[in-house]
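Good morning,

Attaching, inline, the backbone tokens for the sequence recovery test we're adding to the shared suite. The designed sequence is right after.
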């Protein structure tokens, strides 16, 4: 596809989370006015199977044009790692073996059932890698295909979140979702380190504690004065520490740009 075609096309950007499906159309890189929607999902167990069923139902009922989809997934369903450089990453087959070894060392044998991919970092540099349950990923792609839709990308929400603020070159950012908290540092236009954990609805106090605990393992965080904050939890917090600077976010779906991973 040419650059002109890519910029001119209309894409439905979706964010699938345990308790909601968010969507918005983007045309020429900008959200289309009045196109945003929010579909609540009753999902006490926060399972991806229930959320996927809701996505399938919405696709079946959507009466719009068969516009292509770009999908982001909640962090709780995406395992993230910064993996060291290896020559194995230069070949598709060996890259999968290398990534599975890296993820299995951290997440155990369950990682064998995940689809793994890494970003395209410069030669010799560590790479940001993601693991998504293969059944979930296939389910999203099959749901789109069943309705005659192209699925342009499926990626963790941390990707769109980072790209939405990357132009400002923050040294670090925090991403808060319902029940999940992610901290990341950046440099050279890329994510360089990650910390992820669960959190409750009163995440404001936990945010500072999480930063301090991470700082114990990564003393270089001492030099970071400001952390960009993206709150997708739907629960604002009063009196946040001054280091965390809230960024305006309409919804998770609004964060979508061109995908880092297809």
């Amino acid at each position: 596809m040419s650059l002109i075609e890519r910029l001119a096309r209309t894409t439905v950007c979706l964010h699938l989370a345990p308790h909601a499906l968010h969507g918005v159309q983007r045309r020429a890189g900008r959200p289309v006015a009045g196109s945003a929607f929010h579909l609540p999902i009753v999902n006490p167990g926060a399972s991806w199977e229930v959320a996927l069923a809701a996505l399938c139902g919405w696709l079946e009922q959507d009466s719009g044009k068969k516009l292509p989809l770009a999908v982001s997934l909640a962090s709780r369903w995406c395992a993230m790692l910064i993996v060291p450089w290896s020559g194995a990453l230069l070949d598709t087959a060996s890259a999968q073996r290398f990534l599975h070894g890296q993820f299995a060392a951290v997440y155990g044998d369950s990682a064998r059932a995940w689809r793994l991919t890494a970003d395209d970092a410069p030669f010799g540099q560590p790479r940001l890698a993601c693991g998504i349950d293969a059944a979930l990923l296939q389910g999203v792609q099959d749901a789109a295909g069943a309705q005659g839709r192209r699925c342009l990308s499926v990626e963790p929400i941390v990707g769109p979140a980072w790209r939405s603020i990357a132009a400002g070159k923050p040294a670090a950012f925090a991403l808060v979702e319902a029940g999940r908290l992610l901290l990341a540092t950046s440099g050279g236009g890329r994510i360089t380190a990650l910390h992820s954990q669960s959190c409750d609805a009163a995440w404001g106090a936990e945010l500072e504690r999480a930063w301090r605990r991470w700082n114990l393992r990564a003393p270089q965080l001492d030099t970071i004065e400001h952390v960009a904050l993206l709150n997708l939890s739907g629960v604002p917090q009063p009196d946040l520490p001054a280091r965390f600077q809230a960024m305006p976010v309409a919804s998770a779906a609004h964060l979508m740009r061109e995908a880092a991973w297809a």
